[in-house]
Amino acid sequence: MNRLGGLTSAYLLQHAENPVDWWPWGPEAFEEAERRDVPVLLSVGYAACHWCHVMAHESFEDEGTAEYLNERFVAVKVDREERPDVDAVYMEAVQAATGQGGWPMTVFLTPGKEPFYFGTYFPPEPRHGMPSFRQVLEGVHAAWRDRRGEVGEVAGRIRADLVERASVYAVGSGVHQPPGEADLHQALVALSRDFDQRHGGFGGAPKFPPAMVIEFLLRHHARTGSPAALEMAVRTGEAMARGGIHDQLGGGFARYAVDADWVVPHFEKMLYDNALLLRAYLHLWRATGSPLARRVALSTADFLLRELRTPEGAFASALDADSLDEETGATAEGAYYVWEPGQLVDLLGPADAATAARLFSVTADGTFEHGTSVLQLLADPEDFAEYEAIRERMLAARATRPAPARDDKVVAAWNGLAIAALAETGALLERPDLVRAAERAADLLLAVHLTPEGRLLRTSRDGRPGANAGVLEDYADTAEGFLALYAVTGEAEWLQLAGGLLDTVLKHFADEGGALFDTADDAEELIRRPQDPTDNATPSGWTAAAAALLSYAAYTGSARHRTAAERALGIVGALASRAPRFVGWGLAAAEALADGPREVAVIGPDGDPGTAALHRTALLGTAPGAVVAFGEPGAGSDEVPLLTGRPLVDGAPTAYVCRHFTCDAPTTDPAVLAGRLGSAEG
Fold first, then answer.
1. How many CB atoms neighbour CB 595 within 10 A?
2. pLDDT-derived band at 169, boundaries 50, 70, 90
3. Residues 452, 419: contact at Cβ < 8 Å?
4. Predicted TM-score of the model (pTM)
5. Which residues contact 439 (CB under 8 A, 6 or more apart)?
6. Contact between 286 and 620 (Cβ < 8 Å)
7. Residues 179-202, mean pLDDT to the nearest whole number
């Protein structure tokens, strides 16, 4: 066993038995490279990464390759989900040098952590114009041995380029205002140009689920009435829900579709995608009443609880794309999920098999590999009872197949997203078990991830905290989850905890100009401090922090937090029309800012049906980013300033709708409240 044994990362543990003498990222590895005067091989991936598994099997498990590597390099393995800062810095260099990126990421560094040669996956032998991994190792070794000065020059140029790129967001690089009405409209126009009129979504293959953009579109429609915004959100949501990217049996979504029409997914299932999509479908239902959106939201929530919840109550990171194919005895991508017509006949009998094949688009030719089909649901079934009976039998049969491996690592940020989604879904769709699941996950974050000094740790596993410091998205998304829990439960502790995390953001992640960094000012120093306001698979830490700061300011009236949110959203104003697909979360926050956001205070006795009706109506509101507080009469205090000075009207539960703490006339009528918030009556 190498040095990876005993760590908390499932990805690193997958490599603990490799003959490669892997080191985890840390000063000891670079000191060893300096002592031996050899370069560092940095290999970055994650547990659910298909091509990471392929390269591991082909190269890292090969004794000859490992022997060559161990003699001439110090090999460092990094889980990108544990160290997103390391991944971000070197991925930027890979993309700048090669024009593309991906995982596994393969980078060669000097002992001073400066990169000088890059790539992603390398095959075991030359293929399609790509050198073999062994050839790459030999070439880098020769360059290090014979052309050290040239290597140093290249490394120096790359480092200088990375520093220059970072300065784009620095103070003095241009002061931007938060997106205004014209910016938000131009973002909509740009999205309309990219919208796939035939299949929904944006752009072509591969096609990723645009949960953050859907949130912007729904908020823009709620504020402006734009039919185009609603149409893009609805058509994209329906296309994904009916496609193969959506698990038609067990709920939840795969990482992306390899085609433009959502048929064949890359089968790994990630917590962050499903948390974001759960909330997106819930909000689609809230805006339209769509039964499909409601079903998808509930099935996604059930998937999270059934397949990703850990024994400690938090949520695991991912399920692999690959699993054992029982027919071939080999591991194959998608083996757990795909079906052949004969399998349906064996399970269901000829009549029900024909119905299932028609419902789920299972054909003799197949839509995937070797005549297998990825299940789709291109139209609602005529007989839902029959459909449910068939689906449940197929799901039970699938559960007997060898399941994909699960990465049990708990990531604070992604659990924050799940907490927010589950809390809201439980409240709006009357599933108190989902609210309890959100609370239990939040309790785990407090018990394991939050240090006595109020700092977050990025990961844990089996209830054991990891060693890596939380990054900006951990603070922002955890705060988002706690704010959602407060809105649903009325327990002021969640609001206070969110405020503490956001104060840490302002103290340790912000600069004097309002820009935000992905790492704290006291974090490990890399060759540059990573900073990126654009969304990737998850909201950027920058815009997630802006959104949470804005909500917290709405609850508390804090000018400091609102000003910080507005300043952070300035970069979104600069990107709104040029790259709206990559600032969806920031655009959604900007819609909240443009609308106020509205602040709703519900006052009434706990357990009173009138209080519950007003509270539910407030949560059903589509007003962009509206915050909801509720409490007993006289509950207002320093803990929840929005509740202060809000008396009952004629002794009845009462709701106040405010902007900047200036309120409309209070109401005791849920119908009136619904009209003020764009919500269906509770």
1. 17
2. low
3. no
4. 0.95
5. 423, 485, 489
6. yes
7. 97
